[in-house]
Amino acid sequence: MPEEKFTPPAGAFTRSVTNRFSHCDPAGIVYFPHYFDMFNGLIEDWYTQELRHDYAQLIMGGRFGFPFVHIECDFKIPSRIGEVIELTLLVERIGRSSLGIAIVCHRDGVIRLRARMVTAMMSLETKKPVALPQGLREAMEAYQRRTAAA
Amino acid sequence: MPEEKFTPPAGAFTRSVTNRFSHCDPAGIVYFPHYFDMFNGLIEDWYTQELRHDYAQLIMGGRFGFPFVHIECDFKIPSRIGEVIELTLLVERIGRSSLGIAIVCHRDGVIRLRARMVTAMMSLETKKPVALPQGLREAMEAYQRRTAAA
Amino acid sequence: MPEEKFTPPAGAFTRSVTNRFSHCDPAGIVYFPHYFDMFNGLIEDWYTQELRHDYAQLIMGGRFGFPFVHIECDFKIPSRIGEVIELTLLVERIGRSSLGIAIVCHRDGVIRLRARMVTAMMSLETKKPVALPQGLREAMEAYQRRTAAA
Amino acid sequence: MPEEKFTPPAGAFTRSVTNRFSHCDPAGIVYFPHYFDMFNGLIEDWYTQELRHDYAQLIMGGRFGFPFVHIECDFKIPSRIGEVIELTLLVERIGRSSLGIAIVCHRDGVIRLRARMVTAMMSLETKKPVALPQGLREAMEAYQRRTAAA
Questions:
Q1: How large is the C-alpha radius of gyration of chain A?
Q2: B25 to chain D: which residues are within 8 Å by CB?
Q3: First to last CA, chain A
Q4: For residue D26, what pLDDT is reported?
């Protein structure tokens, strides 16, 4: 399988993760569920640092949840202990209560894995979907516009 | 979203998992990466108990790995602490070194989530894909035949 | 270090755990934080199955928590993927809201690791310790008596 | 229980950790095994960044392991989602192949939890303890001296 190159769009939200001993399995590579945990951490930071909506406050204060309804992921190159990988978040689609994102994991400009994930905002009280609050939606839309590939 | 019913085919490999305190997040539901860990445990048991090829021995003795190359998952109903859920494994496609499976997570005949996963057998020494050994392939094919829906 | 033998007292609560691929680290042995997760699972099952107080119900219904205040653990023999280990829970001390337990992890009558853990029952609403309810305390005391070494 | 104050000695190795959604349990506080995982991450960074011995290289290249032989931990104040906590590593005792460390988790100068952990360097090939290499030992001793409280 040929390498697939990746350069994040200007302004895209990217964070580094060091692959820990505890991420790795007896084969010496990252055990795949840990990637999904890294993705959730990236999303938390994106809400808090990029969208300026504190994720912890949305959960514990607002009593909202963001469960995933769909995930798909292609794993291209395994990652090893000690390697630093980059995770970039891109917005694909903003619905009434749903959000479709792509997360690209890369290193040295080459894709390691790529995921598409759809989440739905819900109330932890009613257990029902809720519409994305206006301020949050606008922050998502602005992010999507400014990171759209030319 | 309407409920989706599920009855495992006769002879399908199904195991129960109790949702632990540690599986659950501050929203009180199973944190999604734990499902992927449960899936891996199910696959381990399927190799060892159903296909009669000891998974630990394949990894540590045979120096083989079974990394995932593709995963997709639809989450339909969240699961809560203390609930016992059922996981059923079905074979979709057997390639030269790859294996496509479906895992259905259900309770009381209703689907909670459903995943499709493709794994590739590889050598931990050469880091290259290897053809599924004949005995393992035959066990997979026999399982696929006897669990194919009528 | 010489082996240390262990035979659980008659009636002691013991559960088996299969060491999973995902429990193991690049050194091929169980990554130690997973033991603590296994211990918590054992305690959950002990409440529900042995003391007949449903753990999930205590947490989600009763809004109680059982945080640890002290843990100590001696690791004697590492465990490997595919091995089945036994976990035995013994009661050391029952306080007003606190509970001191020992957990012995063993295989073939030889100790793998041994932990002592102190937990305190608290209210998730007030964040304060609460006295162990009478029925729960009596179940703990009865268990302690019937599993005390002669 | 009164608060216990803590100021790291000058030059002590301290790293921040953000408590993630995935660290927290249905009670909304960090699930305790995650602290041990954080501790291991701190130790990895300490080897690599402070002692200048690359941890990943020691494991995968040198085929060494650093299993724990003893752990004790006192949990004083729970931590919540979104909180940033500080972890400080101090050296207590350097043996032939063993290392005794203390890890203090604190926030705003107040101790959250405190652990003492003893690890032993071993060969992954022979499964036997090995003497700490001279360069590594000297780096540990120098760190211990420069961070000893006056």
A1: 16
A2: 21-22, 24-26
A3: 27
A4: 86
Confidence band, pLDDT 50/70/90 cuts, at residue C28: confident
A and C: number of Cβ contacts within 8 A? 24
Reduced 3-state DSSP string for A81-150:
CCCEEEEEEEEEEECCCEEEEEEEEEECCEEEEEEEEEEECEECCCCCECCCCHHHHHHHHHHHHHHCCC
Q: Which residues of D lie inside 8 Å of C (Cβ-Cβ)?
A: 26-29, 31-34, 36-37, 40, 59-60, 65, 67-75, 78, 124
- ipTM of the prediction: 0.94
Q: Is the pLDDT of residue C10 over 60?
A: yes
CA separation for the pair C23, C80 (Å, rounded): 9
3-state secondary structure chain B: CCCCECCCCCCCEEEEEECCHHHECCCCEECCHHHHHHHHHHHHHHHHHHCCCCHHHHHHHCCEECCEEEEEEEECCCCECCCEEEEEEEEEEECCCEEEEEEEEEECCEEEEEEEEEEECEECCCCCECCCCHHHHHHHHHHHHHHCCC
Q: Cβ separation of B41 and C55 shorter than 8 Å?
A: no
Q: How many CA atoms lie within 13 A of D29 on its CB side?
A: 18
DSSP character at residue D31: -
pLDDT tens digits, residue range C77-102? 999 999 999 999 999 999 999 999 99
Q: From CA A69, how far away is CA A65, in angstroms rounded?
A: 12
Distance between CA atoms of residues B20 and C88, nearest Å: 18
Burial of D123 (0-12, 13-18, 19+ CB in 10 A): middle
What lies within 8 Å, CB to CB, of B73 at 6+ separation is A70, A71, A72, B35, B36, B113, B114, B115, B116
- Quote the crossing angle between the two packed helices C33-45 and D33-45, to the nearest 10°: 180
pTM score > 0.80 for this model?
yes
* Backbone conformation region of residue D149, classed left if phi is above 0, alpha if psi is from -120 to 50, else beta: beta
Collapsing DSSP states into helix, strand and coil, what is residue D94?
A: strand
Q: In this structure, what token pair is assigned to residue C26? A: 């690049």
Enumerate the residues of chain B whose CB falls inside 8 A of the CB of residue C57.
82
- φ/ψ bin of B109: left (φ > 0), alpha (ψ from -120 to 50), beta (otherwise): left
Distances (CA, A) of A11 to A49, A123, D131: 13, 31, 49
Mutate to test the interface with C, among B21, B30, B42, B81 (most CBs of C within 10 A): B21
pLDDT (tens digit per residue) in B42-55: 999 999 999 999 99
What mean pLDDT is predicted for residues A25-41? 94
Nearest-neighbour CA in chain D from A81: distance (Å): 6
Amino acid at site C63: R
- Centre a 10 Å sphere on the Cβ of residue A27 and count the other Cβ atoms it contains: 23
Half-sphere exposure for D127 (CA within 13 Å, toward CB): 7
